[in-house]
Design brief:
By secondary structure, this protein is mainly alpha-helical. It has a domain of about 180 residues. The protein has 18 helices and 4 strands. The strands form 2 sheets. It has a two-stranded antiparallel sheet with strand order 1-2. A two-stranded antiparallel sheet has the order 3-4. Strand 1 and strand 2 form a beta hairpin. The two termini are about 25 Å apart.
């Protein structure tokens, strides 16, 4: 089984790198502001119609444009969800959402979280799914990539007061990257049996003679951008475990590739844009090392299963609970790590049914900021924050002024870096404490003890880090949890974007200096080791006490009682 797991991981990474390399080159052209000549006339027509000046913005203008764009999307989506009962494309006559659930859902999809406190096939009309959720899947993904573009330009430029044009970046990312790729993935999904229609739900008679309702809808189109944009919100409540969303082993593998495709490509783009491919390769190595170890731990934990079942037979302890037999333990474990390492949140199994250690790894991958490939854009700029922290620590160790890619890292940069890194841990720990300290928060817990604590910790970690996956076993469709998680999602997204953009503005204005004798090389094995160690150290210092109360305590209870 170990050999099968290694072969699966190696095959996945090989195909991923082969696909990501050319995409990274294309993204680098967009970062450098060099679209293909055939597209320039089209863009000029768009700017005239929209009355947008194709002029570069400084960091705060860029940030303001991003914030206004997303706030308007949030308001429009919330109104759509609350009024869907009186709108067309609603063959099942779904009523509008309550205000708190509509706000939670709107914030969720605008922030690229896609946390769902509802079951899609029982709650949303086709119009809400397509015009509301699918559109925001594109726009929220474009937002994350645009912020990454701005930060990459800040490192790449010699000295500049601007970081690009937000409207230009959003348009190019959406039309030239997300839409074409999503179309291809959607066609692949349809070929595998994923639904794509506007038919009303079908009433059928099963072999046992009972009546069953089969949901229909435009699933493949949402499924494609859900994965490609690391959004994760499923058309159905069971998400990618539902056979209408993810019917075959091939569709499952394609979905896993789609999640990491753009985050991986952006690492190649980064190296190309800054003029040193080794810098992008170093980030990829750091991400891949953590990723492979995480997958190995989850696969091992799920294969080991529950020791209390060992007396029943050699294979009875293998933990297939909550997993689809068409995927098996290895592919399910790989999917769980991919979706939580990235800011995706799609699930093809019930994470609540994982073993204590198997469930802890996905939770921890979210808590460190989802920088192991991470979300589209957010993964790269999140890892670059850790890069700045690493060079700062290394600079203190050798008595040199910290610098990265010829840009000196000063006090302001480190303040913004610390702020961005500490936003999500603060939200997670305070949010979990609030939920456990209040009657409204405890009322949603269905499992006692350490596992119940893990369910709350996982939910808040998922929201604050804009992942969207759920452990399960926690009733969250209440005003308390809808508001708590909405605040965590909003601040977790834009509370990081603002300081990242401030860093971009600061670095863009600095002149790039040539490397000297005292410059720390940032592309070799030593730096990769330091970067990995920094990520692990920050995650350990921040979350080990909380994890000890949840999955670690549960693991010890299970194995020591055996």
């Amino acid at each position: 089984m170990a050999a099968s797991g290694f072969l699966l991981i190696a095959t996945y990474l090989l195909i991923l790198m082969v696909l990501a390399k050319p995409l990274g080159s294309f993204l680098a052209r967009l970062i450098e502001g060099e679209p293909y000549p055939a597209l320039q006339k089209f863009e000029q027509g768009v700017w005239r119609c929209a009355q947008v000046k194709n002029e570069e913005m400084n960091w705060w203008q860029y940030t303001l444009a991003i914030l206004i764009f997303n706030l308007l999307g949030l308001i429009l989506l919330m109104v759509l969800l609350m009024t869907q009962g009186s709108l067309p494309l609603n063959p099942q006559h779904m009523p509008g959402m309550s205000w708190d659930l509509a706000m939670n859902t709107a914030v969720s999809f605008v922030t690229n979280t896609n946390w769902q406190a509802y079951s899609g096939e029982n709650t949303l009309s086709y119009l809400s799914q397509m015009v509301g959720l699918s559109v925001q899947n594109f726009l929220s993904a474009a937002t994350g990539i645009a912020v990454a573009f701005a930060l990459i330009r800040a490192f790449a430029r010699r000295s500049s007061s601007t970081v690009g044009n937000a409207w230009v970046d959003l348009l190019r990312i959406t039309l030239y990257v997300l839409v074409p790729l999503a179309l291809v993935i959607a066609l692949v999904m349809i070929s595998q049996g994923v639904l794509q229609n506007f038919a009303p739900y079908q009433h059928v008679i099963t072999l046992e003679g009972s009546e069953q309702i089969l949901p229909m809808g435009p699933v493949a189109s949402q499924e494609a951008i859900k994965m490609l944009g690391t959004n994760g919100g499923g058309f159905f409540g069971a998400n990618s475990a539902h056979p209408f969303e993810n019917p075959t082993a091939l569709s499952n593998f394609v979905q896993m590739l789609a999640i990491f495709l753009i985050p991986c490509a952006l690492c190649f783009s980064f190296g190309q844009a800054v003029g040193d491919d080794r810098q992008g390769h170093a980030l990829l190595w750091a991400m891949t090392l953590i990723f492979v170890v995480a997958v190995g731990v989850v696969m091992y934990a799920e294969q080991a299963g529950n020791p209390h079942l060992m007396p029943l037979g050699a294979d009875s302890n293998i933990n297939m609970e909550g997993k689809e037999s068409r995927f098996g333990i290895l592919s399910t474990s790989l999917f769980a790590v991919i979706t939580t390492a990235a800011s995706c949140g799609a699930v093809n199994a019930m994470h609540d049914s994982f073993t204590a250690m198997g469930g802890m790894v996905p939770m921890w991958l979210m808590q460190i900021g989802e920088v192991v490939f991470g979300g589209v854009g957010s993964g790269l700029y999140g890892m670059l924050l850790f890069v700045l922290l690493t060079v700062f620590i290394a600079g203190l160790m050798i008595g040199r002024t910290p610098e990265y890619l010829g840009k000196k890292i000063d006090v302001f940069d480190m303040k913004m870096t610390a702020l961005a890194i500490l936003v999500t841990p603060t939200l997670v720990l305070l949010g979990t404490a609030l939920a456990l300290a209040t009657e409204s928060g405890r009322a949603g817990i269905l499992n006692p003890g350490a596992h119940g604590f893990s369910e709350v910790l996982y939910a808040v970690s998922s929201a604050a880090n804009n992942n969207g996956s759920a452990f399960g076993g926690l009733s969250v469709n209440t005003p308390f949890y809808n508001m708590l998680l909405a605040i965590a999602m909003f601040v977790g997204r834009f509370g990081v974007i603002v300081p990242v953009m401030a860093i971009a503005g600061s670095l863009a204005a600095k002149k790039r200096q040539s490397a000297g004798n005292g410059t720390l090389p940032t592309s070799g094995p030593l730096f990769i080791g330091l970067l990995v160690g920094t990520v692990l150290l920050v995650g350990a210092l921040t979350f080990i006490p909380a994890l000890a109360l949840g999955p670690v305590a549960e693991h010890l209870q299970v194995w020591l009682a055996h």
